[in-house]
Amino acid sequence: MNFFNVCVFVSVFLVSTILSFMLVKYKDIICILDEPNARSYHTVVIPRSGGVGIFIAFILGVLLLDIAHDYWFFLPLFIIFALGLYDDINPLSSKKKLLITFLSSILLFYLGFDIDKYGCFVGYDIILPTWISCLFFGIACAGFINSINLIDGLDGLASLVSLVILCAFAYLGFRWHDDFLFGVALVLMSAILGFLIFNWHPAKIFMGDSGSLTLGFIIVILSVYSIKQSYITAVSVLLLAAIPILDTLIVMVRRIVNKQNPFKADQTHMHHIVLKQQNRHVVQTVMLIGIWQILFTYIGLGFKVRDDSYILVLFILCFVFFYFSLTPKKIRKN
Fold first, then answer.
1. Fewer CB in 10 Å around end: N or C, the chain?
2. Residue 211 pLDDT grade (very low, low, confident, very high; cuts 50, 70, 90)
3. Maximum Cα–Cα distance across the chain
């Protein structure tokens, strides 16, 4: 890392901080606001335009570093950001957001961020035909992008979890001397840190869908890039980004088992339940979930096996443990 790179990261942090401050100060003019409702933990109107500052600072940083060998990935990224921003202004249904994120993921696939090998199980490489791989890729990516959106329910939670995941990719970029992976991860981390100053409890601003969907999509780009470079396997992403993935899977399975609409919003996400267990102490809850993600990410980076079956089994065991630990007894009885 040279002096110019350090200056860029500091500049990205400052730009994100300044933009977040401006978005808070002029919230009544910008009018991208989060009104308190039955599922909210805040009681006053708070701007949810933080994603704008993160996005602008990130794009600026990537352009200054000039590390992208191909800028075509900006196209689906802009679509995702625009989708999130539109949803922050005029709320869309979850099905429409899933559809657009799915199509954007398919576009990313055909722009070169594709995967053909999905792991090695009991000695056999799982290589799918292109059309099946594309379909699975779109579903998996859309699911993960929206999982970051779903955990964005407490002050600083999505920011902290994303920072931990990005630390893993920054480490991989440093270890393999990969300027793109290292630079993009650190630029996004710098943008998030500038925003987190105003997003930490009690939050003065939320990132909104423009922020959470954008974070999820960039993490997808870094994950796919790392897999294509053979730094990690596709299955290891289940551990590197375990918390949002586990939370989404648990909620969906729980709703389906109880014959409920899997897309209907409720208060049964991981952070809702842990918050109740922690006597509604927001910072304590966020820090606890952040520590869980640190442990998962550490294991994911250090789990070096030739057979991905071990990682998959470990993830399934974690899913079962968290499912029963975080599912209220009343729901389990039903």
1. C
2. very high
3. 60
